[in-house]
Amino acid sequence: MSGALIEFSSLQDALHTLFGSGTKVVQARCTAGGDINEARRLTLNNGMHIFMKSNKKENLSFFTAEAAGLAAIAHTGTVSVPRVLCCGTDDAQGGTSFLLMDFLESGTRRADYWEVLAQQLAAMHQADTSAFTTGGRYGFVQDNYIGASKQKNTPGCHWISFFRDCRLKPQFAQAGHYFDASDKKKIAKLLERISDFLVEPEHPSLLHGDLWSGNVMPGHDGSAWLIDPAVSVGHAEADLAMTELFGGFSRRFYEAYREAAPMQEGYERRRDLYHLYHLLNHLNLFGRAYLGEVKRIIGEYAS
Question: Are 98 and 52 in contact (CB under 8 A)?
Fold first, then answer.
């Protein structure tokens, strides 16, 4: 990947550098995208609209990680993502961190929206990943976040051990207080036998990493744009599994994806293991409502 993310020490410095010394914000309107961060559409005195996410000053890493993920997807030249302008910190109002991007105007889906998204995603999954890892085929050049949770991306040579050690194990460790001795025996058995269920991919793929319907939106051109990534290099079927966890993707999407990139046999038997990672994360972030489904999947693979 080329191009370094510019970091500024104040929002005003960022606006002056990007758009000229007389630039200022004339309106800041709250908008969607603020589950973890505050999100606003900024209207500038030159008539431009830009998108700003902000958080506490100490959480700048949220934004440097998001910017790196968007840059990785953009590097593949496949699926559209918003252009990152810069990030930085600002000591005003108690201290904040911020990320500035082009404002993505929502549009009307084109007639072949789902088919084109599937083809673009398949192309992203087939793109060269050598720029995204060092010291292994899987992982990423830096750790990042899945929602508000830290996501470990230590590079490794094997997908199965990467998924076990950098995905499931950290989530299980954080959720340990939810499980009794019997549950913990099942968890140990699942982790020990994980190679009985998962398969190594035919080639490594750049993953969006948090590909639910809320992170895909139609842009001004009617095509799908990806937002809020949690990228890493892994098995493409992990992205596909996430699209199925909470629904919202058309049947035409899956048909077109399989036509563009046929999947390895047995995906349906592995899908719940990929779901387990995200359900554990939701358990750790949002509480016991996800515990029953987590235990069901543990039992499915540890019986």
Answer: yes
35 pLDDT more than 80: no
Q: Average pLDDT in the 278-301 region?
A: 98
Question: Which one from 210, 228, 239, 272 is the annotated catalytic residue?
Answer: 210
195-209 burial, b if ≥16 CB within 10 A, otherwise e?
eeebbebeebbbbbb
Contacts of 241 (CB under 8 A, 6+ apart): 267, 270, 271, 274, 275
Mean of pLDDT over the chain: 95
CA angle at residue 228 from 226 to 233, to 5 degrees? 80
Structure tokens at 157: 């040579």
For 100, counting Cβ atoms within 10 Å of its Cβ (0-12 exposed, 13-18 middle, 19+ buried), the class is buried
Which residues have a Cβ under 8 Å from the Cβ of 4 and sit 6 or more positions away? none
**CA 240 vs CA 120, 127, 181, 210: distances in Å:** 13, 16, 33, 10
Question: What's this model's pTM, rounded to 2 decimal places?
Answer: 0.95
User: For residues 47, 48, 53 and 57, what is the CA-based torsion angle, rounded to 10 degrees?
Assistant: -70
Distance CA 44, CA 126 (A): 39
The pLDDT assigned to 94 comes to 84
CA 190, chain centre distance (Å): 25
- Please determine, for residue 203, whether its predicted confidence score (pLDDT) is greater than 60: yes
| Percentage, residues of the chain above pLDDT 70 | 98
Rounded Cα distance between 153 and 105, Å, is 32
Quick: pLDDT tens for 110-165: 999 999 999 999 999 999 999 999 888 999 999 999 999 999 999 999 999 999 99
The burial of 136, by beta-carbon neighbours within 10 Å (0-12 exposed, 13-18 middle, 19 or more buried), is given as: middle
3-state secondary structure of 255: helix
Residue 210 is a catalytic residue: yes
3-state helix, strand, coil split of the chain in percent (to 5) is 45, 20, 35
